[in-house]
Amino acid sequence: MSRPVTAPAAPRPRTAGAVTGVPLLFALVRTVLLLALVSVAVFTATELLPGDAVDLRVTPGADEEEVRELREELGLDAAPWRRYLDWAGSLLTGDLGTSLVNGRPVADALAQRLPATLAVVGGALAVATPASLALAWWAGGSRRARRLSTAVLTGGAALPTAVTAAALAAVFSGALGLVPPVSLLPPGASPWQHPELLFLPVASLALPTAFFGASLLAGAVADTVRLPHVADARRRGVPPWRIASTDVLPFLLAPFTRVTANTAGGLIAAAALVETLFGYPGIGSLLVSSLASRDLPVVQATAVVAAAVVLVGLLVGDLVAALTEPRRRPVR
Amino acid sequence: MRRRFLPAGALAVLLAATACGGGEEEQAAAEGPTLRYAAVGAPAATTHDPHGRVGNESEYLRFAMLYDVLTVTDEDGVVQPRLALSWEPAGEDLDLWTVALRDDAVFSDGEPVTAHDVLFSLNRIQGKGAENNGRLSVFDLEASSVVDEHTLELATHQPYAEVGIALASLTFVVPEGSDDITEPVVGSGPFQLEEHDDTTAVLTRNDDWWGGAADFETLQISAMPDPAARAEAVASGQADVAGSVSPASAQQYESDDAVQVSTRPAGVNYPLVMDLDTEPFDDPGVREAVKLALDREQLVETVFLGYGETGADILNSQEPFAPDAAPVERDLDRARELLEEAGHADGVELTLHATNSYPGMEETATLAAEQLAEAGIEVQIEVGAPDTYWAEVWNVEPFYLNSLGGNGFVDYARMALLSDGPTNETGWDVPEWDADFAEALATEDEGDRHAMLADLQQRVADDGGYVVWGTGDGIDLAGSGVSGLPTGPGFHRLFIERVEVSG
């Protein structure tokens, strides 16, 4: 009872060549414009906060004349639009400016911390992405346990990072004693030399992210496994692993990349909290403390770098989507 | 095809990979013993300039070890010589002082430390007065001069007998001409800077330091903003000392043999501040009622978990000239009576401001409000954001919590109690008190002067706007091999060169 010849061919994702240079250029321009927009938004938001760097640098009761001089020295007496343009201008020449708190180059501060955050966020992505796919598979694929799986995913995604971090530290460091409770990097050491210090921050970030990613992906999985060619492949007795790899996964690539880019953005935000909790110095804690001291050049640079990571991720996601989006042609 | 691939599996793999990592020991095996100090600090504000705004305890600690200071206070709060050997009045008026410096202090580049370097540094500190609380504003540096290589003459604007205190702890001496200290400059202190990034500084012992080489070879200072993380760093052996942890951490590790709890008196002080110019605090009866209505013992027990002392409204109880004030006993009947006499028989409604940037401050406000309510003072609590509290509440609102950790009374009085003081937050405007303060500082005899200063503090305690209900200990944690941590009040905590580390 085999009718192999008449079986409808699985729709193929579009292949390269369909993407011309024009949409790519358009996507690039859009990314650059969005970045500019982000920098304006961050600048405006910080500007709207009460007080500037000088207010937070001087001590109570400071002499007004001296305060004015300090403000002049730091260039904070200029109009906001002027300061923004100055900043943007020097950014275009590759200069990130100097900190208003300690006068040191912002690029230095970023360069010191970026590797640490990339290690944690990258590690968390490396764990969370396959995990979210696996979870989505379980949730989207099961018809029986739909309610349960939705509850598990929503519950997991709603876990505050602080709670996850505290629980993981209690279990893996407190009860089991496997890893140190804080992630104090020895001076000059790269985080990769001390994977035991990365465990808690990475796991605290990865766990909620995996559930969040899965809850976004579960729908796509559910839709895909109900596509006619998948049902048909099943009827034909194609082994599940082949259905998964040739009939389902290609359809998930686009949503999967987009979800990953989005979660990467969330991860950078959550990293600020995790870095503080575990005493691990990255750009998340840099953003928090520079915001508190109104150190605008540092805030701007950190936010733009973080935004660039997300926007470039989304750009890649769009490209992948453009390359692989299946055409929903009627079955021949 | 439904494989149950839960993240637990992925975690287990990662865990297995990391558990084999091990490796804390490798760098501890360097030549001499290392002291690893986890200090309070938020990385972004890291600065190398010891004279401007210093936002982090970790930086003060670094500066105190890299640079010599003129004088220090000891474990009893008494001024002691450091780079300055002596300070003597150069006349009857106590407004010109001869300061003799050590002649054996040397910067790490081999140049001797001279009076020129000291005067340059003092000028630089004064020039950044807006950022350092007007630290040296008593001095008239234009009228001050270098006498010889190791002697200075310092002029003060008014007679000022407590010059030793004015020069204490934070007078970091840098080489003359160091106008820009964006990057570190050489110092003459007990340690030298080996390497640093924004979070961690590694200092090595200065074997030629005039005070004698430190017991440990390397000092590693890490800035960690979270108090619980600092405590855990010591408990897990990743650090030897954790500066300023919470009372809860102290309690947690009190029975742990591997962790020592070390306390410094009056490291924390959250007085209630009342503005004498605003109703109802313009009535001395109301102020006294507030002072009598608080249950100070309960506050110390609850806020500091017993790591502290009740206060009798004395702003600084740790200095040699602090008055022996009798404890203030709670007396609700008398408090109600005073309110009634002040025309508030039906009670008073107040708003007390606090912020949560300091551990225990919000608890203080909550408990104080409950206690005051029992005397008929209805208190609403308003919690302000940490980064705007000092601009929008402090010295603005009529009733709030301040945070004074170990401010010296004389310095503090100059700023906040003299009627023209720049931060007179309580509106304490008593010409007679101002005159007596000036007279005390023009009194050369230490015994007489101290008696006068004690009386001045007591008068503020009795009639002023500060309710110093108690002070909390500064609490440090140390690993079992550490001994000799500083236990004195104020900035004594920064001078850690005589700490010993074993094992």
Automatic annotation (TrEMBL), chain A:
What UniProt keywords apply to this chain's record, in alphabetical order? Answer: Cell membrane, Membrane, Transmembrane, Transmembrane helix, Transport
What is a single Pfam family found in this protein's UniProt entry?
Answer: BPD_transp_1
What is the protein's name according to its record? ABC transporter permease
Family assignment?
Answer: Belongs to the binding-protein-dependent transport system permease family.
Which compartments does it reside in? Cell membrane
Q: What PANTHER family does the record tag this protein with? A: DIPEPTIDE TRANSPORT SYSTEM PERMEASE PROTEIN DPPB-RELATED, PEPTIDE ABC TRANSPORTER PERMEASE PROTEIN
Entry annotated with the keyword Membrane: yes
Which superkingdom heads the taxonomic lineage of this protein's source?
A: Bacteria
Q: InterPro entries from the xrefs? A: MetI-like, MetI-like_sf
> Per the annotation, which location comes first and is thus the protein's main one?
membrane
Quote the PROSITE patterns the UniProt record gives. Answer: ABC_TM1
Q: How does it sit in the membrane?
A: Multi-pass membrane protein
List the transmembrane segments.
21-43, 116-139, 151-178, 198-222, 264-283, 303-323
Query: Which intervals hold domain ABC transmembrane type-1?
Result: 114-317
UniProt source species: Streptomonospora nanhaiensis
Automatic annotation (TrEMBL), chain B:
Where does the signal peptide begin and end? 1-21
Swiss-Prot/TrEMBL keywords: Signal
Q: Name one Pfam family in it.
A: SBP_bac_5
Q: This protein's superkingdom?
A: Bacteria
What InterPro entries does this protein's entry cite? Peptide/Ni-bd (IPR030678), SBP_5 (IPR039424), SBP_5_dom (IPR000914)
Q: Which residues form the Solute-binding protein family domain?
A: 79-414
Which spans are transmembrane here? none
Q: What name appears for this protein in its UniProt entry?
A: ABC transporter substrate-binding protein
Organism, by scientific name, is Streptomonospora nanhaiensis
Source lineage: Bacteria, Bacillati, Actinomycetota, Actinomycetes, Streptosporangiales
